[in-house]
Each structure stands twice: as C-alpha cells, then as structure tokens.
Amino acid sequence: MGIDATGTDGVNAIEVRNLVKHYPHGTRPALRGLSLQVAKGEFFGLLGKNGAGKTTLVSILCGMLDEYEGTAAVAGCDLAQGFDPIRSRIGIVPQNLALYEDLTPRENLAYFGGLYRLQGAVLRERVAECLRMTNLEARADTRVSRLSGGMQRLANLAAAMVHKPEILFLDEPTLGIDVHTRKDIIGVLAQLNRQGMTLLFTTHYMGEVQDYFSKVAIIDEGALLAQGSIPELRAAYPRCRDLEELFFTLTGGYDKDDEAAPAAFPGKGGPA
Amino acid sequence: MKHATTQPLSAIVIKDLLCLCRDKAGLTVLFVMPLALLLVMALVQNAVISSGPRSVRSELLVVDGDGGALAAEIIGSVSSNAYYTVRREMGGGTPTPEEARRAVLHGDIHACLIIPRGFSDASDPVPSLEVILDPTLPGALREGYLNMLSRLVLLHEVRATFQAMGVEVPAGVDDAGRYGGLNVRIEDGTFAGRKGSDMPTVTQQNVPAWTMFAMFFIVVPLATQMIRERNDGTLRRSLVAPVGYVSLVSGKIIVYGTVCAAQFILLCAAGMTVLPWFGLASLTLGAHPGAIVPVVFASALAACGFGVLIGTVARSHVQASSFGAVVVIILAAIGGVMVPVYVMPHYLREFSVISPLSWGLNAFLDVFMRGGSLGDILPETCGLLGFFVLTFTSAILHRKRCGR
Prior knowledge:
The complex is a heterodimer of chains A (272) and B (404). Chain A is globular. Chain A has helices spanning 54-61, 105-115, 120-133, 149-161, 179-194, 230-236, 243-251, and strands spanning 14-21, 31-38, 43-47, 69-74, 77-78, 90-93, 167-171, 198-203, 215-220, 223-228. Helix content of chain A is 29%, strand content 21%. By secondary structure, chain A is of the alpha/beta class. Chain B is mainly α. In chain B, 59% of the residues lie in helices and 6% in strands. Chain B contains 14 helices and six strands. Chain B has a four-stranded mixed beta sheet with strand order 2-1-3-4, sandwiched between helices. Chain B has a two-stranded antiparallel ribbon with strand order 5-6. In chain B, helix 1 crosses helix 9 (245-273). Chains A and B meet through strand 6 and helix 2 of A and helix 1 and helix 8 of B.
C-alpha cells in the first residue's frame, strides 16, 4: 500500500515505512528499516535508549534531515514531494532549549508566531493563551536566561504550540527537570491532546507518561521492537508489570549511564 | 495558499533588534570602539599628516655657537616658519653641541641645528652648519627638516649674490610661487573644477576611514549571533516554520545595515562636534552631501554580506570572531584606514585596490574633499554592491551545499 499524499480524513498523521538513515561517519545505520504509524489525535510515545534513533526519526519527520531511504508521510503529505506543504501544520519541541535566551517568553512566542504569519490581535491572543496554559504568565516578561530550568522547558513547549499545529513533535521535552515540572508539562500535553492535537513524544522517562499514551512504539538501534496500545503490549508481555519493565525486557537491560534504570534490575539480561 | 513575506520578515527584524540591543558587549564594539579609535587616531595623525598650520609643531633644537648676524638670520627664519618651533634651551640651560647630539641620540628631540663659531664671519672656509637628525624619524619629516634648512641657506646665498653684485634684491625672491624664474601654479585637485574642501584635514581623512572600519567590524557580532543560533537550535527550529533561510538572513541584514548607518551618523556627529574640542578641524561634508547616502547604503550592505558569509562558513564563535576581526584589520590596513594610502610604499598602494574598505573610503573622500557628486562615486558604490552580492550568494550556496 502506497503513501496517501492527498491529506484526506482517515489518513494517519504520521506514517513511516522501511526508513533507513545512514550518517556519514556512523558505524551503523541510525535507522534500520523502521516502520510505524501514528493515527490522528493519538498521544504516541516513542521509547528508546540513548542512541536508539528517536531524534533521528523526529528530525526526518520535521524536515531537518532529507537524505534517507524508505518513505515518510506527515499529515498525509509524502515528504519526498517536499516539506513546504506541512510546515505550518507541525510544531517541534526540540531536545535542546531552542529559545533566544536574551528574549522573554513573550518575545520568543511573538517571534515564532510571527514566523507562522500570525500577527496583530490574533498573535497577541495566541501568545497570551500559550503563556496561560503553561503557567508562565507571571514570568512572561523575564528573560529566558533568568528562568528556572523547568520554566525554560515550559517556554520551549509554549513556543511550539503558539501556531496551533495539527501535529506536535516532542523530543524528550522533560529531560533534566524536576518531577513537578514534568507533571505540569504532561498536563499541558494532555490538554492539547484532548483538543485534538496529535502528539509524538519521545522519552526514556516513561513512568509518569504511560497513563497518557494512546499508543507506544519501542525502538532500539534504529529498529522497531514493539508497537501498540498499552493494553495490547501488556497482553503480549504479561510478565511485565509496567511499561518500564517492558522496555527493559525488550531492550535487554539498561544503559549503565541511564539514571532511570531501577536499582532492582541486576543488569543486562534483566529478569525473565 | 499564498504566504506574505513581510510578516515573518518583520518578526525576524524585531527579534534580531532585541537580541542586539541586549548585547552590551556587542554594542560597545559597534559604537564605543569606533568613537575611541576615531579620536585617538585623529589626534595621533594630526601632527604627522595634517597639511595646514597645526597646533603641534616639530621642534628644532638650535645651539648657536656663533651669535652673529647670519646665525640670527637663520634662527629668525626658522622661527617664522609655521611648521617648526625653535628651542634654545634644554634641561633649564643652554645645551652644548655635545649635549645636543646626545639628546637626539636618546630620542629626546628629533633634530638639532648646531651653528659653529665663526659661521657669520666672512672667513674661508666657512664653518659648516651641523644638522643632527633622529634616525627613527619618518622619511617625510626628515626631508621636511632638510628642505627647510636648505631653502634658508639657498635664499641667503641668493641675497648675498645680489648684494655682492651691487644689485638691489628683487622683491618676492622668496615668494613660494617663483622657482628660478618659472611660474608655478598650485591648486587642490577637484572634480571638473568643482570646489572641494578648502584643505584636506585629519578629520576628513579619519571620519570616513573609521566609519568603514566600524561598519565592517559588525562581522564579529553578526557572525557570532548566527553561530549561536546554529548551535542552540533556534535556527533549526525557525527553519521548520514556513520561512526560508534567505528571509532569516535578510532580517539580520536589515538590522545590522541600520546599525552601519547609525555608526556613520555617530562618527560624523563626532567629527563635527567632538574633534573640534581637541583642536582638530570640524568635519565638512563637501558640496554634494546627498551623494553620501548611496555610499553609506552600499558600504553597509557590503559589510553585512561579509558578516553573513563569515557567520555561515565559520564553525565556532572563536573562528568567527578571530578570523573575521583579523581579516577586517588587514583589509583596513591595506585600504588606507590606519594610514592614508598616499604615504604607503608603491607596492602596498597597488594592494589597496582589493580592499572594499578602500573603495568606500575613496568614495567618501570624493564627496568630502574632491567635490564629487553621485556620478563620481558610482564606480566605488557599484564595487561595494557587487561585493555584497558575491558574499551573500556565496553564503547561501555554502549553506545549500553543506546544509549548515
């Protein structure tokens, strides 16, 4: 079945088939024949260790990388035909804090909103709404460099949603922040998802997120290990108590540098 | 769906303007540094290259061991010269010839004239005047001393010859316009007989020179900003939006081009108000000041194009700031910013034509000093615009090729 490039209803928000990506100086492919689908309105979790290929996949889907093999479609548009048709329909929350640190959250949002051709009262309303949703109103006029790490992450999220994208890509948006701020971010995302936005969320902190995911894909070394809803995966792996345990089971233990690894696991190979 | 390009561009301009305004170090480099350089270099150069009566004259230590009429005549002639000051004392007393020689050797004084005993007497042979010059003296100053003294001696001999023949000395024999009976007309070169500046001044040389330097020095903050955006992810994020790299860069060119225009206005204002406080001539804009506008516009674009190219090609802040700054300093040096081109050796003067700073400086000087109008500055202006096209295009192509 080919990629449907017409963008009509019933088409997956994201559809990837046999995606392969080689970096010039890489020892192995970053993506090895990866295939997955994300339906419209899903809150989709993409789980993987460091170096599994999550950021590479997101970069391809956001048009940041254009040399790859296989097929990829976003919002029904085949990326091989060009990325311009979907630019205004997607947003990205990058892993790095991609904000202007000398500007305030309000100014950052006004800038990014302006890039999407929002202006005047419409822009001001959207900026105010995003600041309200992320609880940044009180610090909206403080320079980003002077905000706490958690508030910077919230501002990073707000900048991605100012133009109301249909699909939002989030590349480890809760990296390095405290539990309370993570909860705030997840709460905002859940609200966006209820409003119909499709979310592709990459992470390796899955404890507080798994209750929100409508579907999950687990990848490792560029290949898909498992995909499905949480109940489906539980049914397929009944010995795993939760998503985290399933993740460790499928990926063969934990990164020795990974802080999220539970102390109970003895090491690579994990419990049966 | 058609997308208007002005809305993203205005958002980009506002963003870059805010970032620049909050970069205190960058603002210091852009505005304070050129002012300081203008003031210091104008004062330093004033004594060396200004062509009119100056507030600082060259000193000549005179040791008069003769005390006669001829010695007095020579000392009087030097004293009446607008460019030299006669000094008769040193260390609170009258120096001996040996002390005078030592003072020159130690660099305490640039030149001394020793008039020996018996110089004014009509003895045979006439004792020689001794002129001691500091060996580190620049050639032009050295020749100035020697020419001044030679002329004094020659005029004395001419008068003595007429007197020995019993002929009245003709009036105006020391007139600068008469050389051996030939009439010589001296005038300042201007375009097609138009009136230029009355006299080239240090101010008229240094204001446009340091303006060009300041404009091209925006390479440092501009390129640094571009690299910061590349490294922190804001560029990649911006490019996900429906806006192209050319638009993102064009916003920067608008902001930094405006900064270049502001630099020009600031330095002109300093030339008209601040430099006169220090005894320097006030800046005048020539007979056709409107011709300055295209020069400023083209120079600003050329500087921004260079900054964009460095910002695109350089991989780090260190590369951008150090490489960009060094290139600008070299182009400024060979372009006549630090030292006027006409005092450079011939082979360096040939190199000056490759420097876009030289083109801009020449265009400014055409307007300020040579009465140039729009047509006269066209070659340099076109050269600067061509430089902008070349650098900007190179930056875009480099980005497309390398994806950076």
